[in-house]
Design goal:
heterodimer, A: alpha+beta, DNA Polymerase III, Chain A, domain 2, 8-stranded antiparallel beta sheet, 6 helices, elongated, B: alpha+beta, Heat Shock Protein 90, Ribosomal Protein S5, domain 2, formyl-coa transferase, domain 3, 8-stranded mixed beta sheet, 5-stranded mixed beta sheet, 20 helices, 23 strands
């Protein structure tokens, strides 16, 4: 293997692939990247066996070949090199020489046979705009549970139907639901995407303005961004039936400006109990009174003008759950929809035409 | 119909009943054993009001002829033994011939039975040992015992019956045991008309365990198989990564008989040594088979105790078989991610409170033989000074003669070696809080808390304690009238914070986080039996639960202070806790654990220089606490070297 490659292009791909390579790898080979020089391109692959990224980079190939190199070290070296052309040459045994202007490195590599086989998708891909995927992940991934023991909730549900795409995530206390209307062809899809895959998917889709293509086999998901390919195992398990959770009769609508309401909640939350983060919402005609109380510390309160004309509502929420919503909907008008103070409440952005985004949160009982 | 006279040994039966009929579950046990010995294929058990009102066991076994049925209620009447030699090789579950006589003497019993050869069945009614009625009855093959009004004629015993929930729990557990031991039979248990166990014949133990406990339990069971000579052990144990906080899910059987045996349980714990943290236990179902001559089951009328002729062999066989089975499985940090040091800690002592005598022997401590108000400090070993944990003896000379007690905890270690004072203690400690949430600190002795001085004596000292400086930026060196004090600054601060946090947690209102979708949980038969009674208390503590069909419950809301996973674990623990009637404690203990972990993290660490004012403040606050001598994890906070000891060290006396 002998090739010349632009530092900038090489670094960009190495940077994108770092996320999947395990930091504390159990199997040593998994902390390596597989480099393959072939057909005028350098192929780069990294995997943790659950998630893999495979990408390519234009290079001047003098001799084809392949090698596995330590991912983190290679990234650090390339990052530190000057902006110039880098020459990679496999010498005796599994040694690789890296030369760039006046710098010389020698890295000990491993033969490619050691690297695990990465699944490939032969079928037909379906295209979705990248910004839809980006918005989907942004609006749902925060609601994924942090408890690893709750296996089926450790990811987001992704559905492709006749004329819509959907993503749903929940931790049992709140649920994030987003839908986008679009014709996406014949393919139907209903899978659970693991948390780590979502993070990588978000990173990769942020790098492209075009479309993301996806494919699906029984156990694997494939997302293609031009020359980059993300491969992931699907999450198995029974995701809860979220349709039961989506409120049907939340007719008491409270409308308010997102910014000021979020700021008020953030202030009141300062005096909420440190463990439960409970704050109270008392909504009467035209105003919402938000209060909190922490024993031995003190209390806080704020009265917000809101658009509301229904019956009195008294509800309590985990402030953190509310703030998570305002983390993704930070301006414009929002609607808080109640049935009563005990049933699930729904938050939505008022004027959002492209997406049907709903955030459902279960109240607390104080 | 022959009239049977009142038996002259009816009183003896009543007395024997005290041993055989310990509680309703023991009656069920005797009757199920009879059914199994009679070759039954199906055993049905029905219970009302925890067994006070009704216990019924029916089977399709071989039944009894009329004469046998009448004779069966005689004391020492049994079909299972003929000669004394038989006793050496017992192959049936029952054999003593006491059970029926005992039961009949303390309850109203109706027996209906028929053999395959009889034309008509027999019904016998007995009340308090008096046979009331014997008549023909239409009955299918087999036998049915119906026991009503248990202990109706022994009010004293009746009073000692535990709550309905507890008795139901024991009965459900017992039927579970027999269902496990006999997978080829079908069992039903009906509690107040509700099915709590219904299992059809199963091909093997794994299938039976699945019927009883569901997929979650069976999921990570590891099969155990071992043999040594004529002894065999088989069964299942849990993987080291999934353990319980109680020993409730350990089931041992010897030749098909459920037993509680220390030899087996010790072997089991040894097999798991260093693989699971202290305070948690593996689940296990172990069936030991050995020649009847190798084991004596006739130790106690209830027959749950046994003696092995060669217990060492049994012990080693079980330990090695289990160890080999779990050998492949790696130890895994439990759900609560305990710090590493806990993994090697020894299991806790069964009783948290250790008597002083035990402490003395355990630690090989010298102490004065009799407490005397003016006793001088005990004689230290030649050339060594005493370093005394103030733990048990915060004020000696300073407090004046009236409160003086002999120092119970002394060590003869040299002063310099502070660690060596702790070490022997750490081995025998009873762990306290922080077990679940973990703490940076290592735990120390708990026994110290048993003998605290009144607080006013301590404030008197606090006044006099004068910080002199810090050792290694970690220990405060202070002096009072009695001598020198060494205070561990981290644990001292920890103790102060612990009490603050604990108070706050106990006084807080219960906040409840409702769930978007109710979660379901499958209970074991015993937990299900206990559920109805525990439910109101659980609701008070922030759980909202509902009963679905069978043994499944739904969880609608959980206490907001806990993560859903931790809340579910707590729920199971609370349900299991019913057996020892130690409910209610658990939530408080949990609060203590949370407080201990908060305190440990917030407390100043070692290797931190302290201004003199801060040392003063620490000492003052510490002395105000209920328990200034030990940290929440049980470690000592203050070590004392008395002036007298110093003088002795310098050989001034």
């Amino acid at each position: 293997m002998h090739l010349k490659i632009s530092k900038t292009a090489f670094l960009k791909e190495l940077n994108l692939i770092q996320g999947v390579v395990e930091k504390k790898s159990t199997i040593p080979i998994l902390s390596n990247l597989l480099l393959e020089a072939k057909d005028g391109e350098l192929g780069i692959k990294g995997t943790d066996l659950d998630v893999s990224i495979s990408t390519r980079c234009v290079a001047e190939i003098k001799q084809e070949g392949s090698i596995c190199l330590q991912a983190k070290k290679l990234f650090e070296i390339v990052r530190a090199l000057p902006e110039a052309e880098i020459e990679l040459k496999r010498g005796d045994g599994d040694q690789v020489g890296i030369v760039c202007e006046r710098s010389r490195f020698k890295m000990l590599g491993l033969a490619r046979d050691n690297f695990p086989e990465i699944h490939d998708f032969q079928g037909e891909y379906t295209a979705v705009p990248a910004d839809v995927i980006r918005t989907f992940i942004n609006r749902t991934s925060f609601a994924i549970t942090n408890e690893e023991s709750r296996y089926a909730l450790n990811g987001a549900k992704f559905e492709v139907g006749d004329n819509h795409l959907r993503m749903v995530a929940t931790d049992g206390h709140r649920l994030s639901f987003i839908e986008h209307k679009a014709e996406v062809g014949e393919k139907k899809l209903d899978v659970l995407i693991p948390r780590k895959t979502l993070a990588e998917l978000g990173r990769l889709s942020a790098e492209t303005e075009e479309s993301v293509e996806f494919g699906y086999t029984e156990n694997h998901l494939f997302f293609r961004f031009g020359k980059r390919l993300l491969i992931s195992r699907t999450l198995s398990g029974q995701f809860p039936n979220y349709d039961l959770v989506l409120p049907k009769e939340n007719n008491n609508r409270v409308a308010a400006e997102a910014g000021p309401l979020a700021a008020a909640i953030r202030r009141v939350a300062l005096m909420a109990d440190e463990r439960s983060h409970a704050i109270k919402f008392d909504v009467t005609e035209g105003q919402a009174n938000i209060t909190s109380q922490a024993s031995d510390v003190g209390e806080a309160g704020e009265t917000m003008p809101v658009e509301y004309a229904g019956p009195v509502i008294n509800a309590a929420f985990n402030a953190q759950y509310l703030l998570d919503f305002f983390g993704v909907v930070s301006d414009g008008e929002i609607v808080l929809e109640f049935k009563d103070g005990q049933s699930q409440a729904q938050l939505r952005a008022k004027n959002e035409s492209d997406y049907d985004f709903r955030y459902i949160i279960m109240p607390m009982r104080l | 119909m022959s009239k049977i006279r009142v038996l002259p040994d009816s009183l003896a039966n009543k007395i024997a009943a005290g041993e055989v009929v310990e509680r309703p579950a023991s009656i069920i046990k005797e009757l199920i054993e009879n059914s199994i010995d009679a070759g039954a294929k199906a055993v049905h058990v029905a219970v009302e009001a925890g067994g006070r009102r009704l216990l019924r066991v029916s089977d399709d076994g071989e039944g009894m002829s009329r004469d046998d049925a009448i004779l069966a209620f005689e004391r020492h009447a049994t079909s299972k033994l003929k000669t004394a030699e038989d006793l050496e090789a017992i192959t049936t579950l029952g054999f003593r011939g006491e059970a029926l006589a005992s039961i009949a003497s303390v309850a109203k019993v109706r027996l209906r039975t028929q053999t395959a050869d009889d034309l008509a069945g027999t019904e016998i009614e007995i009340s308090g040992g008096r046979m009331l009625n014997v008549r023909d009855v239409a009955f299918a093959r087999g036998a049915e015992f119906e026991i009503r009004d248990l202990f109706f004629n022994v009010p004293a015993r009746r009073k000692f019956l535990k709550s309905e929930a507890t008795e139901s729990f024991h009965i459900a557990n017992l039927v579970t045991h027999y269902a496990l031991a006999n997978p080829e039979l079908s069992f039903t248990l009906t509690n107040n008309g509700r099915d709590s166990i219904r299992v059809t014949p199963a091909p093997d133990l794994r299938e039976r365990a699945y019927q009883l406990f569901g997929g979650n339990f069976i999921g990570d069971l590891i099969e155990v198989r071992g043999e040594a000579g004529e002894m065999r052990v088989r069964g299942f144990v849990s993987s080291p990564s999934s353990t319980r906080t109680t020993k409730d899910s350990q089931y041992f059987f010897i030749n098909g008989r459920y037993v509680r045996d220390k030899v087996i349980s010790r072997a089991l714990i040894e097999a798991y040594r260093a693989m699971i943290p202290a305070g948690v236990y593996p689940s296990a179902m172990l069936f030991v088979e050995l020649p009847p001559a190798e084991v004596d089951v006739n130790v106690h009328p209830a027959k749950t105790e046994v003696r092995f002729v060669r217990s060492a062999i049994v012990h080693d066989l079980i330990r090695d078989s289990v160890r080999a089975a779990i050998g492949g499985a790696k130890p895994v940090i439990t759900h609560f991610s305990e710090p590493a040091h806990e993994l090697v800690e020894p299991p806790p002592l069964p009783a948290p409170r250790i008597t002083r005598e035990e402490l003395r022997t355990a630690f090989r401590i010298q102490s004065p033989s009799a407490p005397a108000p003016t006793a001088p400090a005990p004689q230290p070993q030649q050339g060594k000074m005493e370093l005394r944990a103030v733990a048990e003896e915060p004020v000696s000379e300073a407090a004046g003669a009236s409160v003086f007690e002999p120092p119970p905890l002394e060590s003869t270690s040299p002063v310099a070696d502070v660690e060596s004072v702790r070490e022997p203690v750490a081995v025998n400690e009873a762990p306290r809080y922080g077990k679940r949430l973990g703490c940076l600190g290592q735990r120390g002795p708990d026994a110290a808390s048993s003998n605290l001085k009144p607080a006013h004596n301590l404030t008197l000292i606090a006044y006099e304690v004068n910080p002199l400086g810090q050792l290694h930026n970690s220990f405060i060196i202070a002096a009072d009238r009695t001598g020198l004090l060494l205070i561990d600054q981290h644990v001292a601060h920890e103790r102060i914070l612990f009490e603050l946090h604990w108070q706050a947690l106990r006084n807080r209102r219960i906040e409840v986080q409702r769930l978007l979708l109710p979660e379901t949980l499958d209970l074991t038969p015993a937990q299900a039996a206990a559920f109805e009674q525990v439910a109101p208390e659980l609701e008070q503590n922030g759980f909202e639960l509902g009963r679905l069909s069978g043994r499944t419950i739904s969880i609608k809301a959980l206490p907001a202070v806990l993560s859903p996973g931790a809340a579910q674990a707590l729920l199971l623990e609370l349900l299991d806790a019913i057996e020892d009637e130690r409910r209610g404690l658990t939530l408080d203990e949990l609060h203590a654990e949370i407080a201990a972990s908060l305190a440990c993290r917030a407390a100043i660490k070692i290797n931190m220089p302290l201004a003199p004012e801060k040392m003063h403040w620490l000492i003052d606050e510490l002395m105000k606490k209920e328990n200034p001598a030990t940290c929440p994890h049980g470690r000592p906070i203050i070590l004392r070297i008395t002036a007298r000891e110093i003088e002795k060290g310098f050989q001034r006396t």
